[in-house]
Structure prediction request, 203 residues.
Amino acid sequence: MKKLLIMAAAFLLLPLAANATEFKEGVNYKVISDKPASVTPVLTEYFSFYCPHCYHFAKTYLPQLKANMPKGMTFKQVHVEFIGRQMGEVMSRAWAIAELLNVSDKIEPTLFAAIHEKHQRFTSMEDVKQFFASQGVDPKEFEAAANSFMVNSMVASMKRSTENAKIDGVPGLVVNDKYLIDTPSLKSFDQLLEIVNYLSKLQ
Prediction:
C-alpha cells in the first residue's frame, strides 16, 4: 500500500514544470532483467482497473504519452492481479478478452468509469460478461473467448510479466522489457517523456 501511495503522489506531481534531466540507474530507473533490451522499442504500462490512480493516469496523461513516444516504439498494457482480491484475476481475464476481441479501446474507459465513477460492483465473471454486453459485445463471443487457449495464455503471460518485472505498484512503466521507471523520482510529465525517450535508446 505504501508503494501505491508513493507512486500516486508521483503522478500527481507530473504537471509541474521541468528542465532537461540527466537520468541515473538506481535513481530514476532500475534494470529488471539481465537479458538484452527488446529489439523493437516498447513501452509497457502495468495497471489495474481497481486502481484510481491508473484511471487518473489513463485519462490525464496516457493519451499524451502515447502520442509522444519515440518513433517506432509500440505500446502495450498489462493488467495486474494483486489489486481487487479474487476479482484481480477476473479483471486480468476481462482485459485479455477485450484485447482478443479487439474492443479494448472501448472497454478500458467505460470499465474504469463504471468502477470509479458509477461505483458499479463486480463480483464474478458473469458480471463482467453483462458489462461487456452493455458495451455491444456478443455474450456468445465473450463466452467463447473467456476460456479459450488464447485468453488463458494471455492471462498467464500477464502474470508472468508482472512477476518478472517485479511490479508492486501501479501504474508502472517499463521500457524495452528491461527498464522500470522510478516515477517518484520524476518532477513533471516532461521528464516522463524524456526518460522514456532516454531509456528507449539503451541496450
